[in-house]
Amino acid sequence: MNDSGSDLDFDGNFNKEPWNDCKYYSDEEFKEINMVGAFSVIHFNCRSHFPNFSVIVVSETWLDNEKGSYVEIEGYELFTLNRNKKKGGGVALYVDINLRCKSSDKKTIIIDGVMECISVEIAIEGTKPIIVSCLYRTPGSCLNTFNQEVGSLFANLNKVHIVCGDFNIDLLNPHDNLQISNFITTMYSNNLLPLILKPTRITTTTATLIDNVFTNEISRQITAGLLVNDISDHLPVFSVFHQIVHYAQNPETITQKLVRHGKPEALAAHKADLSAQTWDEVFCTEDPNLAYDAFLSKVTKLYDKHCPLKPYITENKIKIKKPWITYGIVKACKKKNHLYRIYLKQRTKSAEERYKTYKNKLINIIRMNKKITIINY
């Protein structure tokens, strides 16, 4: 089962930049990114959460002033900007409580029927203050008005600025609409460059790049990409700024251990190397104990060659256990994600139907198992 996100590709991508290797990441590939201590942001358009990032950015929250307390995340400070008159829309920022931050009122604005933008300023030792903004543009709103407001809002930036959001502007077709081209020009003129270059919303008939992370800080090492995850009909987009130190890690909160990385290609090379051995030192030894020692020494030496032990650093975070999520359900979730990747790659009605049918059955099983677990608790 190939669960790589790298096999997803589409006819249209935004301008490829030499400093930005934006790509799709499966859950397994994303786990390989070393985020310990690095400043990181993730944005998605939905009412769910993705922990372990420095800042979690959510657009189209559909919150009001009463619902805010119900969507708080332990370990994060919540900032929200909700619509006053109409339903829908809304933006939110979750900032790691280990970071010193405050609201940035000058970069926060709401224009009914056009956009909402909320910003916070984060102080990190050793770097300029960082402003993180979450912006949501109302679909079908006046692009000319939006471009003017964005141009004024992000002008004269003298700090590190990261703008995440659902812009509802397809960057894959900038020449089809003058106002889309003007939006790109507006962002570029304020030194804000996009980190996401591939489609973020994919259906059987369309693939559009409407969610993004813009920044004026491109001189640092950055890992940016899209998570192949069906948490929403928009793929989550993220960026990790490796040279911006998030906060000093407490030695008690991290663990370093040695792990063997037995990737398929490494195991195949190991198997080939074993097949090429003559094993003379094993067969020519009369003492079975010495023969076994020679055999084990040879196998171990080749295994260390192809699958060496490498240091792996993890954060010691308390995991909230959900006893109704069994090992079988975890395997089913992986299969569901695999079917979702197949759907994104093939973009056919049959692939979509297989994925949705399996997903709905899995949801029902999880709900039933949760109900039974709570009743028997």
From TrEMBL:
InterPro entries: Endo/exonu/phosph_ase_sf (IPR036691), Endo/exonuclease/phosphatase (IPR005135). Transmembrane segments: none annotated. Residues 54-234 form the Endonuclease/exonuclease/phosphatase domain. It comes from the Eukaryota. Keywords: ATP-binding, Endonuclease, Helicase, Hydrolase, Nuclease, Nucleotide-binding. GO terms for molecular function: endonuclease activity; helicase activity. This is Helentron 4 helitron-like transposon replicase/helicase/endonuclease. The gene is HEL_DR4.
